[in-house]
Amino acid sequence: MSYYFDKETSVESNISTIKANIKNNLYTFKTDNNVFSKRGLDFGTRTLLETIDTNSISGDVLDFGCGYGPIGIYIKANTNSNVDMIDINERALSLARINASINNVCVNIFESDVYSNINKMYDYIITNPPIRVGKKVLYEILIGAREHLKDEGHLIFVINKDQGAKSAIRDLEEHYKVKTLEKNKGFFVIDCQKR
Predict the structure, then answer these.
(1) Tell me, what's the pLDDT at 4?
(2) Contact at 8 Å (CB) between 187 and 159?
(3) Domains of the chain (ranges plus CATH)?
(4) pTM for this one?
(5) Sign of the CA dihedral running 117, 134, 75, 147
(6) What is the per-residue pLDDT for 134?
(7) What's the distance, Cα to Cα, between the start and end of the chain in Å?
(8) Do residues 67 and 91 make contact, with C-beta atoms less than 8 angstroms apart?
(9) 9 pLDDT band (50/70/90 cuts)?
(10) Residue-by-residue DSSP string for the chain
(11) Predicted local confidence at residue 100, as pLDDT
């Protein structure tokens, strides 16, 4: 079976609509087969979004691996940031564009295999990274973010302790100033500041 981090999918489309209440704001999203967390907002992404202090987010923001779009759409709806959203999955990108329109936000959505199509620097890169791609690609995403962050920029991501949160924190401390913002039922929200 094709996995949602793949560029294309042969899995039959079956679009559905979900609602997500995040910090007392209701969002509507179209989801589909072969897109991450199609049945509803996953607990990791919810923990990430409920942890982020939107009052501190400004400038240029990248939603890495946007899926159907909840992170980038939420950030744009609650900050004055310029938001770019990337994914490799074409079905996810199509849904993210639809969902941006549904939720009345103006964001820039485009395809990128990891950072291959990124040509600017960001104040924040925010992600619920695709853990199942394996440690090598995961670290290309997390450590590689540093090359696309402005000075003192932040990578903020969520990871489960059972998926290597503690070792990731330890390894990332070689590249960033690392702080744990939240721990919730095994999910860690990590802030990595470029130094």
Answers:
(1) 46
(2) yes
(3) 16-194 (3.40.50.150)
(4) 0.94
(5) negative
(6) 87
(7) 41
(8) no
(9) low
(10) ---TTSSS--SPP--EEEEEEETTEEEEEEE-TTSTTTTS--HHHHHHHHHS-GGG--SEEEEET-TTSHHHHHHHHHSS-EEEEEES-HHHHHHHHHHHHHTT---EEEE-STTTT--S-EEEEEE---GGG-HHHHHHHHTGGGGGEEEEEEEEEEEEGGGTHHHHHHHHTTTEEEEEEEEETTEEEEEEEE-
(11) 98
Distance between CA 99 and CA 173 in Å, rounded?
35
163 token code pair: 């998926």
Would you say how long the chain is, in residues?
Answer: 195
The token duo for 75 is 């950030």
46-85 residue pLDDT tens: 999 999 999 999 999 999 999 999 999 999 999 999 999 9
Structure tokens that stand for 43 in this block:
């607990």
Q: Taking the CB of residue 122, how many other CB atoms lie within 10 A of it?
A: 23
